[in-house]
Amino acid sequence: MLGWQIFVHSVRLVFNNLGAAFRISIVLYLVSIAAQVYGYLNADMASAINDGTFPAGTGQYAVMTMVLNMLGLVASLWIAVAWHRFVLAEDYPEGYLPRMHGGKMLGYFGRSILIGIIVAVGVLIASMPLAMIGAIAPPLTVLIVPVAIGLASVLFFRFGSILPACAIGKNLTLGEAWAATRDQASTFVVLGVVVSVATLIVVLPSLLNSDPGSIINLIYILVVNWFVTIIGISLLTTVYGHFIEGRSID
């Protein structure tokens, strides 16, 4: 199945280029997870705020969290653009901080928001009749989640090629991305299911740990998230390379 082949190829891209992946992302990834680590170190503050109390230092905590989240967003965009460029344009990293392409990162962010809106609207529209049917026949409500995942996968991956295109300086429209993946709905449904199952498997150990303050749990999540991040970017890279540039994924 092509969906499975895309997933395997994307994973292979990462493991065959671990050194480059590490150089491209490690420094930026540490920046991207700073907010998560800060929240862990200030778990009592976060818990108090969630309970509706605002102890001394709440303002400082809120500002610091906001700043770290903004830096994390920039770092994540930086990683995505750099990895796309490494795979598709042979833009090899020379050190542990890849070249910053600010304009492409901004374009990537804007296109990501656009795709997110399209996916959200599409899933909402599709879920409404299912919800009404479920009100009449409650057992059918179990269809809502799989249908939502399938539709979201199709929309995201069919339009998602505009993101790698932006990273390498190509002007790919939504219509062109959609046309290039014509008749591939089943491929992307399979890909979405595979990604969902794989993600659940790798995060399951952390879900089984009942101690939210566990340092082992935190380390495991951060390490796993690095692989999930790079492989996730590679999925879009593979989709673009195969359907837009005609690259082989054998």
**Tally of contiguous helical segments:** 11
Number of strands: 0
Give the tally of structural domains. 1
**Which of globular, elongated, flat, extended, rod-shaped describes the shape?**
globular
- Backbone structural class: mainly alpha
Give the C-alpha Rg.
20 Å
On the 0 to 100 scale, the average pLDDT is 90
Helix content: over 70%
How many angstroms separate the termini? 12 Å
Q: Enumerate the spans where pLDDT stays under 50 for 5 or more consecutive residues.
A: none
Percent in strands: under 5%
Q: Biggest sheet: strands, sense, closure?
A: none
Order of helices and strands: HHHHHHHHHHH
Transmembrane segments: 20-41, 61-87, 108-137, 143-167, 188-208, 214-240
Keywords: Membrane, Transmembrane, Transmembrane helix
Protein name: Glycerophosphoryl diester phosphodiesterase membrane domain-containing protein
Organism: Primorskyibacter flagellatus
